[in-house]
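Schema walkthrough. Field components (list of strings):
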Amino acid sequence: MMENSRRSFLKIAGVTAAGLSLKPVTDVLASGGHQTKSSPIGDVSKGKDVLTAKRWAMVIDVKKMAHDGTVHKCIDACHKLHNVPKMTNKRHEIKWIWDEEFHHAFPGQHHEHLSEAIEHAPFLVLCNHCENPPCVRACPTKATFQREDGIVLMDFHRCIGCRFCMAACPYGSRSFNFRDPRPFIEETQENFPTRMKGVVEKCNFCAERLAVGKQPACVEVSGGAIIFGDLDDENSDVRKALKSNYVIRRKPGLGTGPQIYYMV
Amino acid sequence: MLERALNGNKNYWAWLMLLMSIIGVAVVFYLYQLWFGLGVTGMSRDVSWGFYIAQFTFLVGVAASAVMLVLPYYLHHYKAFGKITVLGEFVAIAAVTMCLLFILADLGQPQRMLNVIFYATPHSMLFWDMIVLNGYLFLNLIVGWNALSAESKGVPPPKWVKPFIYISIPWAVSIHTVTAFLYCGLPGRGFWLTAVLAPRFLASAFAAGPALLILLCLLLRKLTRFDAGKEAIQMLSKIATYAIIINVFFFFCEVFVACYSQIPEHMDHLQYLFFGLHGKGALVPFMWLSMILMFTGIFMMLIPKVRTNETTLAVACVAIFIGTWIDKGLGMISGGFVPNPLHHVNEYIPTIPEIMITIGIYAIGMLVLTVLYKMAISVKEEAAGLS
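Field assembly_structure (string):
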């Protein structure tokens, strides 16, 4: 008796599986080979004001940045715009951009006789949007991914919160939502998503502002201390700055290709 | 065959009830974690992996150690292991089950876990970890179950199981290698960026696993009529001895490389672990305890009289197991994250909910192991009675 019912179960299961696999096959055949899947929000294409580049990068003028209040203007602009919460527990801190002293921003390049200016200057640190990002290499779902223009972005809906990208980042640029961040957002900006608990987040080079022709928030309020542009464009501000100034990058020897250049 | 696990005496059921109550409590804590978020744990922005991933790392090693029974028996026909290969495979099943549960417990969005399959990403080591872990579970279930089932019928296992057995040997090595590759390919973590991490993981696994198996065999001898045999236990103890020596040797290699080259990026983590850094040193006593336990284990195991006396052998195995557990389960993770890439020192200490969930998952593993072992012993006692 057991044998017969097991056999008939398998028969039914096999037919069901075959039946279920019919739809995707017929879908592909019916579409005539054109892989079109209609977007649920209608046609998606680039806006007319969009800023495009082959390779976005940032040059930070450390001397200008050291002027009173510039650092905090940059940090506040970014965190306010992107609904970055102010967590009360330091362990759960979320920060996309913040300032560090030289020996924290550039461990290993510190020495006993640094110039006064460098020793006390605030260094703005953020995601470096690396050319060769180890976080993208590590992510098992491509929730963190590199766009064609070099920006490393996050899909908060795909992220499973494994935090492998946080382990992979050599710069400590990433934060995790250890709890629901929404109660800790001072003033929610309706035009940018808030995140849920259990996902990782970081600076996104203000991709949403670039899409409508605006500069990143930190650049806009920096009073010229941050230069932003396309490294591939010879005439861009970043290329001009790099042509005539010596710059350092964080942990360059690791081969990550960080795209934040510090004019010291 | 599973119905054999339902025939047990009072103590058996009391043990299962105890495990299930522990699991019940842990489930409540896990629901709390699901509701609140991973903030209920001691993890932080700097130490973003903690107890859960540490246990996963340790248990992958224990799971892999089943190969230390399979390889000698199936490849080299070492008859003495014939009785207990199934026991090793069942330890592997319980261990991999716990690994998968620990990973699940650690996810910020566990209901999205299938994304790893839907959006398969071969350049991510976590993708391969998922594949090899599930594959290994599948392999051990097939091999162990069929071998036991054949034994219960008094026949040799069917021929088609052989390829699965042979595959399970390199696969066992692969599960721990891939897990090591999670760590040792990350450019920003000097403590983990070492070629010897995968070999060290394997050495530590082949010490902890056999040590656990010895303890389980000794326990089975006390609780049941099943006797693994003195030769099997002694061979396991020899394997564990060599493995723990190699593990400690590899560790010394790491210490030499860091401390002789004197590169701060590499020394700092060891300094934090063993001496404290910037006034923070929560792990210092544990790391030294681990060293003492591993050395004690080595010296005890090297003395034949101590190794052959099964009471002292048990003590040595406990020392080895706890020593390697601290090494992988406590030191490895915190050591990699502290100091952080910007050279700040923020420590990690697990919280009560985190520990309760961890204990709960260990209880699930012990439940799986108890049920499987009950089944196996029942089959083996019957087979022995018949012959």
